[in-house]
Amino acid sequence: MSIPSTPSTPSTTELDDLKSRLPDPIPLFPEITAVAGGMSKAIGNGLIPQTTIGLVQLRAGQIVGSTYHTVRQSDDLRKTGETEERITAVSSWRDAPYFTDAERVSLELVEAVLTPNPSGERVPDELYAKASTHYDDKALWTLTLVIAQICFFIPVALIAKPIPGKPIGKNYNK
Questions:
Q1: pLDDT confidence band for 89 (50 / 70 / 90)
Q2: 106 contact partners, CB below 8 Å, separation of at least 6
């Protein structure tokens, strides 16, 4: 009886050999920098904690199956001092004891936006009402823009396939 081998972690050299499908879009569309910068400025108004922004965007990456976004958002959360327990538990946030009520409603909102609901609207009045108990109108708009920002970059990650774990500007190899 043979013991099945476990897959090995790719070496740094193997990761360095990864190639994106498309080249860096900035030389082709320099206007994207202004769009991305404007979105970052809008959501960085202090109304939604940076941690919540990272958690929401990590959950979005998980929902759409983007390794690039899950790695990037996890790394960003670690840099802000987030614990491994909270980062790991984002995928199972509903029964995890690590999140505030405001974070929970933010995670529920991103799931509602990104998950098809064949039996009704994605963001029902009840969910909106729950979110509005934690956030005023400007904060809710900010949270909406947080979700919009990650949704702007989801097709980039899924189609162009930038290299996970590489810094911005160095995550395209064509």
A1: very high
A2: 48, 52, 55, 56, 131, 143
